[in-house]
Amino acid sequence: MGSVGLLDRHQLATQPDTGTIATMTEQTANLVRESTGDNERQRLDDRFVPIRACDLITTLANDGQHFGLASDAFHGVADAILDVIEQETAAFERELADLYAAFNPDRDTQSPDRKPSPQDCADLTRCLAYLLEKTNFEHLSDVQIEAAVHAANSRGLRVRLHPERVDYLAIWVRGRGTDERDRRTLRHPVRGETRTIDIFRRIAVLARLRDDPHIIIKLFKDIPIEDVEALLPHAEIEMTLRDRALLIGGSAGTLGSTAGKVFGLLKGMAALTSLLWVVLIGAAMLTYRTFMGYRRARSNRDSQRTRHLYYQNLGNNGAALHTLTSMIAQEELKEAVLAYAFCHQSSDQSWTPRELADRVAEYFAQRFALGIDFDASDAIETLTRLNLWRDTVALRVVPCDEALRRLRNHYADRRSTDYHMSMARR
Questions:
Q1: Which region, left, alpha or beta, applies to residue 204 given φ > 0 means left and ψ of -120 to 50 means alpha?
Q2: Which pLDDT tens digit goes with each residue over 350-367?
Q3: How many CA atoms lie within 13 A of 426 on its CB side?
Q4: CB–CB of 392/384 below 8 Å?
Q5: For residues 173 and 362, what is the distance between their CA atoms, to the nearest angstrom?
Q6: Which residue of 48, 78, 113, 306 shows the fewest CB atoms closer than 10 Å?
Q7: How do residues 46-96 score in pLDDT, each as one tens digit?
């Protein structure tokens, strides 16, 4: 979708009062609601910035006059920010991989003599929670998981949870949206009909099963909210009473019909005992067919779930860990360049974090027709760590040439390589 148009520079540069902020937020929400196409799937309660970092930097540079920035200078600052952020995330990934090695079910190296302690497990789960929080995932509560299971039950499936099978379970989601899927209905049993369903763009599942030393990490994409139950390692799909009645009733009817005909023949052929064996074998086969039909129907339920999830899987264990740490660099870079550009624009005024978040949200609504809930506090913290503030309280950044000098010194001195791990262990 093309640009809706940039905000008036004077309007953005004017410090609004509380009423203006509320009006601006409502206008932003209206702009998002009025957008069309795939972009409607973004929600204002989503901290994820749904634009690639390189595309966002190019757009901000092209709008440099809007922010009072020279395009080349801004590109230089963005590249220098990326260098520092990638230095931080690379160090974090190395330490996280070392911590996860003892719990990785896919490891092909020999384990050390010392077994991981409960404290090691607690440290790892704390670091994983920090990792997902930094990549703008949201943690699903037990109530939300139960709601997903209820949604599955309402679709004709019976889902039974076995909490005694797991020691640890956490589900994190990022990006709520909608998608269209074909479903068979009574009106259209063969062709099916298209339905719009709510989905999570990304889901991360962390689990440790009872009596298993490993911690499982799985990453999925575009999972319907009503199918979240399929990701739970302690969930089983069971047949409903209707399914059982259809299977047992159909087989019982076949068995009764066959038995009636056979006993009719037996009245005139009582001497043929061999026919009795035929009857017994036939009855046994029908019983076996009923039992196997029940098991086959249950298997079909599980295979439907498996086939669906096979194509949505983005990575497991070590691969998922690498993907998530890569996301940190992308998310932090996007937040940092947005905060730098907008705070560079406000060099002659003071802003609050809430005002910064509202300005960025309004810019996205008008520039990309997307709704985001910009994480201003995280962006401000990143610029603080990189020492890019001229006035921290007023949210004014240093000019591009000074920012570039500070960032290069920061990178050369490796000042924040242990930042993520130190924060994760708090």
A1: beta
A2: 889 999 999 999 999 999
A3: 8
A4: yes
A5: 24
A6: 113
A7: 788 989 999 999 999 999 988 999 999 999 999 999 999 999 999 999 999
